[in-house]
Design the sequence.
């Protein structure tokens, strides 16, 4: 999220970092035996009402919440009983039924403004070979309602993420199992974690690197980034060689635009080796790391931490 907020700040786009938002509904959708459509719909509408109160348009970050929100939105629009039951819940907490006309994933927004990102590019990424994992829950849960573009991959695959990499000047490499899940899935990351990790490495990472020798794997969902990144640890410890840094499209765009790799993009939290990527992009990782360490020491000594501020909102 910090990379996305940084991009918004750089472009002068006001945002609301709502600290009162609920957690990702996916944990209930997939991970709970008590999940039900009414409860999910109530959480969705509660968040939409909160955004409406703040005069802000909701930009969804979690891919699974995005897909889940679209499903329950459809139910609310088409099912009177669902609306009645959800409205009764909302009344108990002093909220109203607010259903947005459209739901937008952050990667769709980046797709739309990709040329503005490219205008602010500070590092040459023309030698960077990118592979993209399109997050399943963004485009599979409601497959008829996602962003495609005839100019991106002939309109045959989701446009977001790929379009941003292309606009920034990177190379896009194709691979045979692009449609496969990252391994996260959601429920089986909770119940069959080793299956998730094994799938992520042997069905995604290993084939990708054998087929493409990519410099970076980009995706647009936190679960995908985490699974594809963290699942490389055990196979590498057992002697397997294939590895690739995994970033979100927002992180990659922010890096290309000059964001600090550690203070803003926080790539040091990723376990796959990001150093070759930064070097190939022309970013001095050692210097940036020293700057980050100095920043941390200054915070320890009492300096106020760096926070990305929203540009001022101009009300019509």
Sequence:
């Amino acid at each position: 999220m910090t990379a996305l907020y940084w991009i918004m700040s750089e472009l002068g786009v006001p945002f609301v970092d709502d600290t009162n938002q609920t957690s990702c509904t996916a944990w209930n959708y997939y991970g709970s035996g008590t999940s039900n459509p009414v409860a999910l719909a109530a959480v969705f509408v509660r968040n939409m009402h909160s955004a409406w109160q703040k005069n802000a348009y909701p930009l969804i970050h979690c891919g699974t919440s995005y897909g889940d929100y679209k499903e329950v939105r459809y139910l609310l629009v088409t099912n009177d009983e669902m609306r009645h039951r959800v409205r009764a819940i909302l009344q108990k907490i002093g909220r109203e039924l607010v259903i947005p006309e459209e739901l937008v994933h952050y990667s769709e927004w980046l797709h739309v403004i990709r040329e503005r990102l490219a205008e602010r590019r500070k590092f040459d990424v023309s030698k960077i070979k990118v592979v993209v994992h399109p997050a399943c829950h963004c485009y599979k849960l409601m497959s008829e309602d996602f962003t495609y573009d005839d100019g991106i991959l002939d309109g045959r695959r989701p446009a977001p993420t790929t379009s941003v990499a292309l606009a920034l000047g990177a190379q896009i490499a194709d691979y045979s199992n692009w449609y496969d899940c990252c391994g996260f899935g959601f429920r089986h990351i909770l119940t069959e974690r080793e299956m998730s990790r094994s799938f992520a490495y042997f069905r995604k990472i290993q084939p990708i690197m054998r087929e493409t020798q990519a410099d970076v794997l980009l995706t647009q969902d936190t679960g995908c980034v985490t699974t594809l990144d963290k699942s490389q640890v055990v196979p590498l410890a057992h002697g397997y060689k294939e590895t690739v840094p995994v970033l979100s499209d927002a992180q990659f765009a922010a890096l290309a635009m000059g964001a600090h790799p550690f203070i803003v993009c926080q790539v040091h939290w990723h376990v796959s080796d990001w150093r070759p990527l930064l070097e190939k992009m022309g970013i001095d990782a050692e210097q940036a790391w020293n700057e980050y360490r100095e920043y941390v020491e200054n915070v320890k000594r009492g300096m106020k931490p760096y926070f990305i501020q929203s540009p001022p909102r101009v009300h019509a």
The chain has 16 helices and six strands. Residues 2-104 form one domain. Strands lie at 59-60, 104-105, 129-132, 171-172, 216-219, 246-248. The chain has two domains: 2-104, 120-299.
